[in-house]
Amino acid sequence: MAVLAAGALAVGTAPLWGAGGKGPLHDAALSATPTYTVGLQPPQDPGPFPGSVTPTSPTITIAGQREGESTFTVVKYDQVQPKVPGRMDFDHFHTGIEIQWWLKKWAHERPDIVDLYIVGESFSGQPIYQLTITDKSTGADTDKPAAYFEGNRHSGEISSAESSLWLAHHLITRAGKDRAVDKLLDDKTVYIRPVNNPDGHDMYLYTAQTNRSTVRPYDNDGDGKRDEDPGEDLNGDGYLSQMRQYVGAGKGTHVVDERDPSGNAMLSVGAGKGDYLMFSEGTDNDGDGRYNEDGVGGLDLHRNYPYNWHVMAEHDATGRNLTQGGAGEYPLSEPETRHVYTWLMSHTNIAAVNSMDTRVPMHLRGPSTCDPVECMYRSDRKLYEHFDKAGVSFTGYRNAGSVYIDYATRNGGEPQALFGHGPDFGYFQYGAVWYGDEIWNGGDFVDYDKDGRYADWERSRWCAENGRTNCFLPWTTAQHPTLGTVEIGGINPKFWSQNPSPDLIGKWAANQARFNLYLTESLPQVDLGDVKVKKLKGTQRDGATHELTVTVRNTGRIPTALEQAREIKIVAPDTVEVTGARTVGAAPEFHLDGGDAEKVRLRLVKTGGDTVTVKAVSVRGGLDSATARLS
Predict the structure, then answer these.
(1) What Rg, from alpha-carbon coordinates, does the chain have?
(2) Where are the stretches annotated Disordered (predicted)?
(3) Strands 242-246 and 3-5, sheet pairing
């Protein structure tokens, strides 16, 4: 195994997250210390709970060479503090420091069901951790049907990490106490990667900064400079929110929305009709008349998958083709995406995936570039439609369905394509059930004016009616270096707009995790039964001495191979193997739909002992075996 330099939190202003560089978007240079080994981690006691779940240094420095700022002030949010240190709760958001402690603790305390891996490193050189959860006494993880769940691919979409943690905590703490959990871990494997993008997750929870996906420097505004205009926390409240400048009646673009009883929301009324001008909090660092349009990073890890990947607009030599923003230089150019791909391709026992985001909310899946009726096998589409409905029954999400049709048109308009999207890779190239679910509703609880849309005044009104004072940041006066007197406030960008407040995260995380449990319970599962042996009379032309008949059933809801998986041959056919005797002729090959069975006849030649072992073998349906006597 390769030993790689570990990424670490930066102390003071020294960049310990990796150096990065200009030129092609290759991986960042690794930091010097400490070291870690990629692969299975030996179970070790992590020691006492960390004294602080946020860095104790005043600043941290983000990896990568950029024209803008890379060093940011550490913010100690109340929303990330555990109720009792060292006791799991889902009334706060878990930082990277706390998550790593829990993962190591679980691996140390439950080595019978938990393995901890470092699957690779992030752009900055931080280790990316992943759990394997299964009962090891009933077989290897790779010999069982498996599901893979991933959180926090996108920097600020931290609710997905919480749902991943909730599921891991549920399985680990209920094992040995809950028959359903024990049965699931006896038969199946669950791979959980709580934080696929530790760089962005840390930046979001340790500083006022946020971004779309990865911290790799990128020229968002096309001016030839990378990350030169990030937001600034001018009033020091730990958030990059909104700024409003009063310019007089009829001179601005916005007014205070009279429909909001709390006076928090602003309403755009058009140039020359309002009282205020609106900006995002910060300064115009590059002097182009726009505020904070080129902050940290800008690529999108969920547009970096190989299936139907398209170049970004600036790389399209024709200047007229369909392009994809945030796609990266080439498919799997980003280490975080690449580590998902390599794990999946080396663990093809995985038949169900959910790589989660925020905040539609929606059970989101492919296709991302075509109408499902036209480009999916009917049986596969019907299975997905079943899971759409099942998901909504657990979560109550307003939307469920495909990216191309349901996601793109949920607010009206025509279908639109996303390229290089994970769910498309998951179905068309990996041949699995793959969701990219979106947790949280952005505070969109009641559509008071029944227009089918949600506005800030409706979010603010709901909060007021429900006694919530943490949804919006109060408008406070500040002095801007170029604008003069401004007010800073608006909807809470971290803990209401993009993610719920901590007191709500547990419910949303649990509901999403219950759907993921349902996916896991639905995995294909081969079961070998009705084993019979008949001794053949006389001398057979093929030399067979016995005939064996067995029935192989798929007790799961998901086929051992989707129709798409069969077409692309991502998994080998199911079969039956015999040891202890010689099989005459070729081994049978078949695939089993959910709930289906296959009766198999094998002609055997007795070669020694009286007992043979019969094994049903399926890449995604696992293994099952039985013994039989040759009379």
Answers:
(1) 27
(2) 211-238
(3) unpaired
Residue 204: name the closest of 438, 408, 495 by CA.
Answer: 495
Please give the model's pTM, rounded to 2 decimal places. Answer: 0.94
Mean of per-residue pLDDT scores for the chain:
94
Q: Looking at the predicted structure, is the pLDDT value of residue 158 above 70?
A: yes
Distance CA 272, CA 520 (A): 56
The conformation of residue 515, written as its DSSP 8-state character, comes to H
- What does the alpha-carbon distance between residue 498 and residue 441 come to, in Å, rounded to a whole number? 8
Structure tokens at 33: 């210390």
User: Do residues 29 and 87 lie in contact, with contact meaning Cβ atoms separated by under 8 Å?
Assistant: no
Average pLDDT over residues 39-49: 97
Which residues are registered as beta bridge partners of 622?
618
Helix (H, G, I), strand (E, B) or coil at 246: strand
Start-to-end CA span in the chain (Å): 49
- pLDDT value of position 3: 39
In the block, tokens 């902050």 appear at 295
Task: Please say whether the beta carbons of 32 and 5 come within 8 A.
Answer: yes
Task: Quote the DSSP letter at residue 167.
Answer: H
What confidence tens digit (pLDDT) does each residue in 68-107 have?
999 999 999 999 999 999 999 999 999 999 999 999 999 9
Q: Which helix (H) or strand (E) element contains residue 253? A: none
Q: How far is the C-alpha of 470 from the C-alpha of 209, rounded, in Å? A: 19
What percent of the chain clears pLDDT 90, i.e. is strictly above it? 94
Q: Give the pLDDT score at 10.
A: 36
User: Which residue type sits at 12?
Assistant: G
Q: How far is CA 296 from CA 204, 291, 319, in A?
A: 11, 13, 26
CA distance 221 to 349: 42
Which residue(s) pair with 117 in the sheet? Answer: 40, 130
Phi and psi angles of residue 317, each rounded to the nearest 5 degrees, phi first: -65, -25
Burial of 453: CB neighbours in 10 Å, binned 0-12, 13-18, 19+: exposed
Residue 32 has pLDDT above 50, yes or no: no
Share of the chain above pLDDT 70, in %: 95
Backbone angles phi, psi at 563, to 5 degrees: -55, -40
Q: Is 295 helix (H, G, I), strand (E, B) or coil?
A: coil
Instruction: Please name the residues in contact with 561: beta carbons below 8 A apart, sequence gap of 6 or more.
Output: 431, 570, 571, 573, 574, 591, 619, 620
Determine the Cα–Cα distance for residues 190 and 171; give it in Å rounded to an integer: 9
CB count within 10 Å of CB 42 equals 9
Taken in order 182, 183, 187, 189, the sign of the CA dihedral is negative
pLDDT of residue 34: 54
Residue 438 has pLDDT above 50, yes or no: yes
Per-residue model confidence as pLDDT tens digits over 360-375: 999 999 999 999 999 9
Task: Give the phi and the psi of residue 154 in degrees, each rounded to 5.
Answer: -95, 135
List of residues 6+ apart from 495 with CB closer than 8 A: 77, 79, 93, 470, 501, 502
Q: Report the distance separating Cα 298 and Cα 284, nearest Å.
A: 18
CA-CA-CA-CA dihedral for 33, 35, 38, 42, to nearest 10 = -140
The residue length of the chain stands at 631
The answer to whether the beta carbons of residues 453 and 411 sit under 8 Å apart is: yes
Average pLDDT over residues 209-226: 95
Q: Rounded to the nearest 10 degrees, how much is the dihedral formed by the CA atoms of 422, 428, 434, 438?
A: 40
pLDDT over 70 at 11, yes or no: no
Q: In whole angstroms, what is the distance from residue 560 CA to residue 562 CA?
A: 7
